């Protein structure tokens, strides 16, 4: 038993020594990026899938839990693959050119996005829309910082909020099929289900009656 413990401690010391080697830093960063992508994807998707599944999906408990597990796995896997691909391509480009330049990041991410997130499915669609909204905000701020557009005299956020809500409700009311399914479900719950009730039970307690009254 003691011999096994000594062997394990020796192996642990060797692994820690390897992790300190600068020559392996790029390769090790790719591996840790894969790990962090998998963990972060699971942390983000699991609670979201849990809430959305139990709020809007029908079916047995087993079916709901299976749906949550599948969504969590898909998000975790895709993010892990993307981080692995991105960091690997970034390291390869830097090694080939002898230095890191901004275009390396753009090219590596484009390739990773095409390979990992190119399939048009609900999980990838949500991730891309999440990123797109933040890109628009980021590019707007960058344009102001670089002087491409003047600094607003007043905070433009109230106008942005008004236009976003005005546009999304117009689309929901008149062109619903253009919206992502989970957004349709959320808005149906908020704006249509609130128009229908039969008694106090489905007015305050439940959204919809489950009996046959």
UniProtKB/TrEMBL annotation:
InterPro entries: Pmp4. Pfam families: Tim17. It comes from the Eukaryota. GO terms for cellular component: peroxisomal membrane. This is PXMP4 protein.
